Amino acid sequence: MTNRGLVTALIAVGTAQVLKLPLHKATTGVWDLRQLIGSGGMPSSHSSGVSALAAYTATKYGVKTPEFAISAMLGIVVMYDAMNIRRHAGEIAIQVNDLDADVERLAGGHPGVYHTRRSERLKESLGHQPREVYAGAALGALIGCLGALTARRT
Hints:
By secondary structure, the chain is mostly helical. Helix content is 67%, strand content 0%.
């Protein structure tokens, strides 16, 4: 027995991740295979997955059910996190990554014995711009509705 709602949500996540590759190429001119597994970018795969689950649940069982309430609240939390907390963490990572160069520039290229350049950069692409979340949510809602409408009646 398979869980059609879960499968539908995972298909939405996978679809969003695959779409990141050509969309990144269209905006930057560079094929970057890391887009297939990375976080951040257009469209948000997290938003796509939770929206697909909520849309599937709403279409299959109705919006007055506890199942829809749970999936909708999960979606709200995930999308809020992607647009706000994770995006701001990425912006802070950009500033921290630039800190070494700033210290060296301010010290005239001689930061002294108390400064050691960081060996690893922090990941900067953590969250999403609102338009990336909206695009992921729209994609997920479409996939979720299709998943519910094509499911066998039980």
